[in-house]
Design a protein that fits this description.
Order of helices and strands: HHEHEEHHHEEEEEEE
Radius of gyration: 20 Å
Largest sheet: 10 strands, antiparallel
Number of strands: 10
Number of helices: 6
Strand content: 35-45%
Oligomer: single chain
Structural class: alpha+beta
Length: 219
């Protein structure tokens, strides 16, 4: 046992030093380059899911501009800009009812790296880099919010081969609030988000949204 213990300590020290030598800024740059190449200059999609439909069901019929079946939630993203989430075929009062989710989608990370003026410096103004752990097939990167939200942190799971964010876990202090899983699909020459699944730690929220009717633009 006395011989085994030093070996364990040495192995743990090696593992720690490997994680310590990982440069977050380098990984950030590689991920940004990857997302820039895997996304078109612009893409549009409709966001579908039970959570979306439940909100649409609250809209009174007098606010429809067409039939209820024509009401759809449109997501538009262009590299270098903030995305928009607009509800189609309703009057102006309800068109922006989902805009509050734009910020929430940003923290999921599937477009943050190539969104509105995002670079390492701008990210550093919003978050403090806290930790990075390297596993066999993935990185786990933890960022902590700055300012009044400093109790909140997010840990991203990044595929080492594809450099794509596959999972985000959200914490308040050390307590996990909920997690998000992202799946992607190949469309033409691009890789785009397909399904985002949300699950709260208490099990009360277990929902997903799906990107459908996806259109890509090279200009």
């Amino acid at each position: 046992m006395k011989k085994i213990l030093p070996i364990i300590i040495i192995l743990c020290s090696i593992a720690y030093s490997q994680d310590a030598n990982i440069n977050f800024q380098d990984i950030y740059s590689k991920m940004k380059e990857k997302y820039s190449s895997m996304y078109p200059k612009k893409f549009e999609a409709h966001i579908d899911g039970k959570i979306v439909q439940r909100q649409i069901d609250t809209i009174p019929a007098k606010s429809y501009t067409k039939t209820k079946s024509d009401i759809k939630l449109k997501f538009t993203f262009s590299q270098g800009y903030k995305p928009t989430i607009i509800l189609e075929n309703v009057d102006s009062f309800y068109r922006g009812m989902f805009s509050v989710f734009e910020g929430a989608l940003e923290t999921v990370g599937f477009y943050t790296l190539v969104g509105d003026a995002n670079n390492y410096d701008s990210l550093s103004k919003k978050f403090t880099f806290e930790n990075i752990k390297e596993n066999r097939n993935e990185y786990e990167i933890t960022l902590r919010a700055k300012g009044e939200n400093e109790n909140y942190s997010v840990t991203y799971t990044v595929n080492k081969d594809s450099l794509i964010i596959e999972r985000a876990e959200y914490y308040n202090k050390k307590s996990k609030i909920y997690d998000v899983n992202i799946s992607y699909e190949d469309i033409e020459n691009y890789t785009l988000p397909k399904i985002i699944k949300y699950r709260s730690s208490d099990g009360r929220v277990n929902s997903e949204i799906e990107f459908v009717d996806i259109k890509t633009y090279d200009k």
